């Protein structure tokens, strides 16, 4: 039988042998992983835990919050605030940053998360997930403000997600490739199940919400039209489409077998740069995708080079198999 490697052992080895992660970061990742286990338990209970349905409130972007959105947010905050590894947290579900209270020691890291991505899938029992990103606080003063969070994604110290699907899987990067851990429900431990994950450069599968087609910009329309033209078209091959409507699940498929994911800017709200959130969704996913040999842009620029101007900033997202993302990006640059 092959030896099982736990998340703890993987992280200790990253710390000891590769020098990639300081002790505080290791602790932080372990705490996030533990919180994800608690969220997985709540998600699995579903109607039995009385956790389904709306909470009757809205978040800062005016979206209706589900009970599980709020529960997951609370689980992540409670688990992380006392450990001494964090200075502050920011969440898609909170208007402002949550500074670690004075009664606890303050660490040098800042944690950002979308506590439960794919809210529309919660009540219908389709895969959902938690996305997280870790930044280092610049400067050693105790105070921390929203400005400290406004760093380009290329400065992330770690990023990952946990997908609550047929299996519960934690996917992680600390800047040394991508590793996947499957939750062993019998022992309660995360077991390393894939290492050095690689996204193939070419693909025949795209993910986009096709119902928005009439609102798309010309380069996106051109790209999808060419995919739809199949073998007879300029691409010379048939494409398949998949859209889960949980970014976590769509990105997990791409990390597993390749593909391209697009949530582009469109003409519905011309002033809005896109739908997805830069700090809680696009940056962490871009870090994972690049670490797996893929590419992530907003059609014009690398996502991880973008300088955020506010915490809840939105962005256009094209990510996945390198040659496809390159192609869509070229179509944008040609039409600019
Ligand atoms: P929430 O952030 O409200 O959970 O929405 C999930 C999401 O931002 C992302 O995970 C999906 O890719 C996208 O929404 C699906 O959006 P559409 O319903 O517009 O297809
Ligand atoms: P399997 O029986 O091979 O699992 O296929 C499942 C399925 O028949 C349906 O569940 C699903 O709606 C459909 O395939 C998806 O098919 P497509 O790949 O054509 O979108």
UniProtKB/TrEMBL annotation:
It is an enzyme of class 3 (hydrolase). One of its GO terms (molecular function) is fructose 1,6-bisphosphate 1-phosphatase activity. Its EC number is 3.1.3.11. Substrate binds at residues 117-120, 209, 275. It is found in: Cytoplasm. Residues 199-332 form the Fructose-1-6-bisphosphatase class 1 C-terminal domain. One of its GO terms (cellular component) is cytosol. It comes from the Bacteria. Pathway: Carbohydrate biosynthesis. Belongs to the FBPase class 1 family. This is Fructose-1,6-bisphosphatase class 1. It comes from Sphaerotilus montanus. The gene is fbp.
